[in-house]
Amino acid sequence: MRPENYKPVQHSASHEYELYFGPNHPGIEGNYALKCVLSGDVVQSLRADGGYLHRGFEKIMEERLWIQNVALVPRICVPDPVPMEETYARAVEMLGGLEIPKRAQWIRALMLEASRVCAHLFYFGGHAATMGMYSNMFWGVTDRDLILDIFEEITGARIYHMYITPGGVRRDLPEGVLDRLSKVLDYVESRLPEFDNLFFDNAVVINRATGVGTLTTEQALSWGVTGPNLRACGLPFDVRRDDPYLIYDELDFDIPTETAGDAWARTLVRREELLQSIRILRQIIATLPKVGGPIRCALPNPLAWNVPAGSVYARTESSKGELGFFVVSKGGAKPWRVHVRGPSSMHAVHVLERLGPGSRLEDVAQIMFSLDACPPEVDR
Amino acid sequence: MSTDPNQAVACRTVDAEERSLLGRVLDRIADHCRARSLFVLHYCTGCGAIELPPTMTSRFDLERVGMQPMVTPRQADILLITGYLSVKTLKRVVMTYEQMQGPKYVIGLGSCTINGGMYWNSYATIKLLDRYIPVDNYIAGCMPRPEAIQQVFLDLMGRIDRGEAQAWKDYYRRYDWYLGQQQQLFGTNWQAPTDVVGEAIRYRLVGEQTLGSHTAHLERYAPYYDQLGIIRPEPARMKARPQLEVVSR
Amino acid sequence: MNRELESLDAVFREMPDLKVEHTGPRRTRIQVEADALPTLLELLKGRAGYLHLSAISCVDWPDTEEFELVYHLWSYQVSNLISAHTRIPYDPGRYVSVYDLHAPAVYFERDIHEMFGVWFEGCPDQEPFILTEWQGPPPMRKSFDTVAYVNDTFEWREYQPEWANDPSGGKG
Amino acid sequence: MSKGSFLRPLKALAYLGRPAVTLPMEPRPAAPNYRGFHVNDWEACIGCGTCAQICDNEAIDMVDIPELKADPLAGIKPRRPAIDYGRCCWCALCVDICPTGSISLSREYVHVGPDLNTYYILPDEKGIHGLNYPKGWSKSPDADLLDLKRQTMGEMEPQERLQSFAEMVAGFTPEAALMEASRCIQCGMCHDACPSHMHAPEYIRALWSGDAEEAVRQIYRTNPFSEVCGRVCTRRCEDACSLGNRGEPIAIRWLKRFAMDSLNHEQVRRIAAEGRELAPSGRKVAIVGAGPAGLTCAYDLARQGHAVTVFEALPHAGGMMRYGIPEYRLPYDRLDDDVDVIASLGVEIRYKTRVGHDISMERLRDQFDAVMIAIGLHKGRSTRVPGTNNENVIAAIDLLRDVTLGVAVDVPKKAVVIGGGNVAMDAARTLARLQTRAYGAVQVELVALEPADAMLADADEVREAKEEGVVIVNSRGPRCCIINGERLTGLETVRCLSIFDNQGRFHPLYDHEDAQVHEGDVVVEAIGQMSDFSLLGDKLTEKLDWNGPRPRIDQDGRTSEPWLWAAGDMVEGPDVIHAVAAGHRAAASIHNEIMVREKTP
Fold this sequence. Notes:
The complex is a heterotetramer of chains A (380), B (249), C (172) and D (601). By secondary structure, chain B is mainly alpha-helical. Helix content of chain B is 38%, strand content 8%. Chain B contains eleven helices and five strands. Mean pLDDT of chain B is 77; it is low at 1-14 and 235-249. Chain C is 24% helix and 27% strand. Chain C contains five helices and seven strands. Chain C has a five-stranded mixed beta sheet. A two-stranded parallel ribbon of chain C has the order 6-7. Chain C is elongated. The chains are: A alpha+beta (380), B mainly alpha (249), C alpha/beta (172), D alpha/beta (601). Chain A binds chain D through residues 64-65, 67-68, 70-72, 135, 142, 149, 152-153, 155-157, 160, 162, 170-172, 174, 194, 196-198, 200-207, 294-296, 298-305, and chain D through 2-6, 8-9, 11-12, 21, 30-35, 50, 53-54, 56, 89-93, 96-97, 105, 136-137, 140, 142-143, 145-147, 179, 181-186, 205, 208.
C-alpha cells in the first residue's frame, strides 16, 4: 500500500530497499506499522509507526466523569482489558481514600488472573501464527473462549467487562461460577500437554524461535523492559510481588524466569506464568467463598462526585508488563489528567526498533509477537 | 490493460436494468455462488477485531459457510471495519477499499461506525463510516459477539444472494461526493493510487456525481496518472462520448 | 524513617532543598526545581539505585501557564517509586532531555512533544509518531477543545426512526 | 532445555478422531446478567432523564411522548429515553443509576442490517425486536449507584423539646449538607412540582460546589420567604423527587435552610436587592395582609420600582406563618429576617391597621393604582356537634394565635383535639408544651377521622407528636361534647367507617354503637379554617363574583373588579409555598396592568 502523495523514489544502485510492514499486514498484531530498510532479507533499520489506533483516550478521559471513565478504560488494551479497569479504579481509590472491601479485592484478583490466562492463550496462538503455524491459534483462541464464557457470566460481557469500578466491583459473583471456573481451569491445564506436543516440544518452533530478538539483561534494564519480557532475561521482577496491590501479598505464587532473553524464552516464561495464574486462581477459588461482605464501598452520587485533588501513580502487572496510570485530580468532577503508561509503549516502539536491525524479515513479526506488543495500548 | 474506455469491457458488473434477461440470470447465478465463498480481508482496524479470531476459528467456525480471512485486498471480498477508525487508519482503509476488486462489500462493526460510538468526542476518530466509503451492512454492539458477527455475515450472504448488496457501485456513481468527504478530512492534496474514475468508466458506473469539483483536484496529479498509463478522468472527453450512458441514481 | 527513604539519604544530603513527601506505601513524592531535576535523577540513579524510569507524565496547568513534568522512577532494590514533580513555563516550553540517563525517556519525551508541544533539548527523536497526519495544535493541551473540534469537523447521524412518527407506538 | 522433537506435533493428528468443539450456527442464549439491548418499563419510568445524564456517549435522548400525561406532583415527566446504538457502549451505567429501576438490559444481542434508522430505538419492555427476551443486567440492590439514604440531622430529645418552644431540629452540619446535596441527580422534578417553581436543582448544585451565596441567589429568584420555607414548607418537591421512588428523597427543605443559615443577614439583603429597579415607577399598590402571598407580591412589586404599602391588622407581619405555626417549628426571628429583607426593599408595612375598620376598601381603591387582598384563613371552623358552643371548646387557630401574641391561656390539665391535619398537630403539641410547663405532664388526646395510615398530617409531625406524649386516636368522629352542668368534661366519639362517598365527597359514615368518651377540660377543634371577609364591606361583597365562599379570581389572581387582586390561602387553601407562588403571579399581573395605565394624579 502506498501513502498519499506517493512518488516513486529512485534508489541508488544499492542493495538496500525500504519495506512498509503494516498496518494492513497479517504479521502485525493489531493495526500498527513498521518501516523497515532491508538488505536482502536482513533488516538494516526499523522504525515503528503508530497512531493507527489513536483515539485520544487521555484527552477524552478529561472530558468525562470519574465513573464514566470506567467504561472507557478497558478499551485501551483489547486483548487484556481487566488490568486497565483495575489500575484506573485503584488510582481513583487512592485519590479518594476509598477502602475496597475484602471480597471485592479477591474478585478483582480473580478477574485479573483470568484475564492473564486469556491473554497468554491468545499469545501462544499469535506467536505460533507468526511462524505460519495456525493449529495453535485455533486451539488457543478456542480455549480462551471458555474463560470468556466465565467472564460473560460474571460481568455480563465477554471482552469489555466494565466490571471493576472505583470502590469495588459492580456485581457479586453469580451462583456456582467458581465451580465452573475451576472446571475450565482443569481443562486448560489438561490441554497444556497437547500444546506442548504441538508447540513447546516442537523442534521446528524451538529452532525457529531460539536466538531471535535476544535481549541481554543490561539492555532489558536500560531499555525499560518490564513484565514477562524482563523475566525472560532472568530478572524476577513482578509488580504483583514487589509493589503488591489488592490481596496479592496473601497469595502464594512463583515468578518464573528464563535466562536466554530471546523469543523462545519469552514464550516459555508465559507458559509458566499461565500455570502460576491457574495456581493463583485455584487459591482464589478456595478462599472467595469464605470472604463475605459487601462488594463495593459506598460511593458518592456519580453525577456529583468530586475526587479530592492530588496525583497518584497506580501500577499493575498486566500480561504484557508494567501498566501505570498517572491520575491527577484538581478536585473536580472529572479527571484533570490521566496518563496511561502501557507496557507495550516501551516494547512496541523503543525495544522493537532496537531489536529489529540485524534480524531477518521473517522474524520481525515473531519478535513483535514475542514481546506481546499491543498497539492499542501504545496509541491510546 | 485496455486504455480506451469506449471499448467498454464486457464486464459482469453492469447494472441490472441494463442487462438482458440472460445476463440477469447469469448475474443471479454468479451472486448465488459468490455468496458462498466470501473472503474477509485480514485487517484489524479497531477493537472489534478481537472477536474475529473466535469467529473464524473452531468454536464459531465461519469456514463452514465458506468464509476465510484473506491477507491481500486484491483477493478479498469483504472489508470489515472493526469499530472505530482513526483518521490515519481511514486513509489506509480508503486505499485498501479502492484496491479491492468489485463486487466488494463493507461491514461496519459496532457503534463506532454508525455514529461515533464511545469515541464520539475524540478528535482522532471518524464518526460516520458511510461518509467515506459505502457500507453494505452494520451490526450493533460494542463490541458485537462472535454469534452476532456470524449473523451479520449470514445476513450479508443473503443480501448478496438476492442481489441487494450493491453499495460498492455507489462509490463509483458518487465518487465526487465520497472524495469530497475524504478531502474534508485529509485536505485537498489527498490522492489514492487507484484511478477510481477510470474504473467507473470501465465498469460503466459513471453517475452524475462521479465527477465534480472534488475530483477536479486530482487533475494536478495528471503527470503521475500518465506515467502509470492510467486514463485521466477528463470531464470534457466524457461529454463528447454520447454512447457512454450516464446512470442517474 | 523506613527502608525506602533511608536509601535516599545520600541524595538528600546532596540536595537539601528537596520537598519530600511520603505519600503512601512504596510511594514518595519529590517536588524539585526544574534546573535541579537532572541532577536529582542522576543522583537517584547513581546513589540510590532508581534504575527504572517507569514513565514521564506531563500535566498542563493553564492557570499558571505551566507544564508539570512528572518523572516516575522505580528502584528494584528497595521497591519504592519516586514521582519527581517539576514545573516549566509555557514560554519557551523547553526542557532538557534525560535520555542520556534513562533511554526509555526518548519515548515519553517524544510523546510529550507530540501531545503538548514541549521541546526537549538533547532528545534524539522528536519526530511525530502517533499524530503524523494531524494538522491541529498539540491536542493534549487544555486550550484544545476536542468537543468543539469534533463538532466543527464531523457531522452526526440524523436518524429518522419509524417510532418518531408515532412515539407511543400505541402505548400511550 | 529440551531440543524438542520433529514428530511430537504429529500427535495432534489424534484430533481427527475427536468430536468437534464447533457450536451450532444460531446465537447462543446469553448469560443471566448479560448486557444486551435495552428494555424499559414504561409504567415504572418517570422520564427523569438520569440515564441520559450518566451516559458516557450521549447515546440517550429523552423523547417527548405526547400521549403520556405529565404529573409534576408525582414527579413524572411525559418523556422516555431513546437509545442510539451508534453511540451506546453497553456499560449499563444507565441501569445502575436509574432511580426507578425501570431500565435494564435484555439478553438479546443480535441486531444487523443496513437500515441505520433501526439503530436508534425507543425501548419498551419488549425489547428492540419485540421478542420478549429475558432480562439480563438489571438493577441490583448491592450495586446501586444512587445513595438512597438521607443524611441525618441533629434533633432534640422529646423531653427536652417539651420544656420550651425552642426550634427542635438543628439543621445540617456543613458536611452533612454537602453529602445531602451530592445525592441530587439534577432531574428537575422538584422544580416542576414546586408551586413557585423554585430552582432547587440549581441551588443544590451550588451548595454541592460549596457556593452558598450562589445557592441563596438561586433561592431568591423565586422565593423571598426562604427562611420560612427552609423550615416549614409542605415540600411538594420532596414528594416528586426521583430518589423517592426507591429511597428517601433529597432533603430539599433542609438544604434550603442550610443555605440560608450559611449567610448572614446583611448578605441576604444584598442578594435580594440585586437587579432591583432603582428608578421609582410612580405607581402605588396597596396590599391587605402581610402574609406570605401579600409580602411576596410586595417584594416583587418593590423590586420593580413600585411604591408598595402593606396593611396588617396584627402587630407583626407574617400572617399564618407567625400566628398559625408554633415557634418550635419556625422561630419568629427567622420570620423577622425574611420580613426585614422585604421591608429593606422599600416596602412600607402599616401594622395594627385593620382594613374595613381603620381604612375602607374604597379609600384604598381611590388612593392606589391597584389593591391586592391576601387576608388568609384566620377563622376556625367548628364541627358544630352538640356542646361546641361551650366556652371551653376553642378553635385551634385561636389557641395558636393567642400563644403567639402572648395572651395568657388557661392551660387545661387534660385536653382533646379534634382533627388529623398539621394544625391539629400544632395545637396538640403546643398544648403539650404548655402542660409540661404548667404541670410537668402531658395529657393530650387527638381524635382523627382518618385511619393511622391515611393521616392528613405529615408523617414526621405524627411521629414527633407521639414522641411528645400526645395520644392519637384514629378513625373516630366527634358525636358531642359532654357538658356536666356548665363544665365541659370531655368529648364523645364514634367509630368512623369511611370518610368519603362513592363520588369522593366528604360524607363520613359512623358506627354509632361504638362510642367512646375522651376526658378533657378543653376541646380544641382543628378541622379547618375560613376567611373573614367582613373587611370588604357590603357593597363590594355584593359586586364581586364569588366561587362558593371565596372570591372568584382568574389565573393571574385578579378578581371580577379590575382594580382588585386576591391571592393566598383565602382563595387557594392553606399552604405557604402556594401563597408565595400566588403572590408572584398576582405581582406580575399587577405590574403588567399598572404599567400600561395612566399614573394616578
